[in-house]
Specification:
This protein is of the alpha/beta class. About 60% of the residues lie in helices and about 10% in strands. It has 15 helices and 9 strands. The termini are far apart.
Length: about 400
Amino acid sequence: MSDNNNNLINKLQDLTQQIISISSTLKSQRESSLSSPLHYNFFNLQNLFIFIKFLFIFFNLFFFIFLIYLQKRKVVKETIEMKIFNKTEEQLIKEQLEENDNTNTELTQQQDANNNLKEENEQKELKEEDNERNVGIVIAHPDDEAMFFTPLIQSLNEMNNNLNNLNTHNTDSFKNKKNIKIHLLCLSSGNANGIGKERIFELEKSCKILNILNQNEHVKVILNNNTLINKDNLINNNNTLINKERMKGNCIIIEDEELLDGMDKIWNLDKISWLVEEFVEQNKITKIFTFDKFGISNHPNHIATFNGIIKFKLKTLQKQNQIDCYQLITNNNIFRKYSSIFEFVTSLHFNNENTITLFTPQFLKSWKAMKAHESQFVWFRKLFILFSTYTYVNTFTKIE
């Protein structure tokens, strides 16, 4: 019995030694394989696969953005032409046809009315083209144009580029179309911190980046509504020029005691309405873009700008000289407000015939324009330019 036990113990010892030997052999082979070139290449290959995977994801993302941009280039002309410049004419024709149907007039009378209406629309369109299709953007402070309205400005500039290319190739349908000229009215110099003069210079730099001003043009500043000076404060103009053309220009800044920058300042709405009316008449503006009743950030100066435009709109209705005014829709949803470029897809989902959605993926233009406002280009505004939807998307509705 003891011999059997001894044999069993010996066998177990031999088996244990064999297991230990195999284990040490496998360990040595594993260590040698880790240091071998073959394993090293395999390890790099795994990293390469991971890198290719992420590269593929980012490629698809940027390809998707690029496709959206191409689609945007395709529809920007139609959006601006049909929804902004021709929308009023279409509504008039539709209303006239509905009125004719309701009154049960004869077919010949309908045709005569429609023909007369078409002639009036053609004359109005020719008049707009004679006015060079001037567009006005009314803001409250220097830097508003860079923070909120760059998709609109870039879309209008791109429309001009398309028209220039088509005119170069003598395209019949566009040979009579004139460029869209942008005029900016800023209702204050942003002098809340005593740096109004500096911010005037910054707005001029921004407008040149956004092609609102040519390199040899300057802003015009209206001081207390009675003196017109240039940006260097060297030229005082005579009273005749002040009365007739003081508000004529591509970039006008108002410095008035009743329109002081500040969260606690109450603006004179009648003064805004009067200034906008003068701005529109002297620059022959046919379309105006501004804030909505929420003012993007509930800023009281932005809201006052909108309310002043409303008073101007009511005044033009009384004079039967209607000017189309559009408001920039405020995104009250925090996720949509800072969803950056992806807001374009959401905006298209909620888009309808009464809204105008303009898109640009070129945030560098907004960044450069905002960077021109050096006194305001602090860290949280840098984040705003990167993630705000207003850097990429503008959605407007018509003020009725």
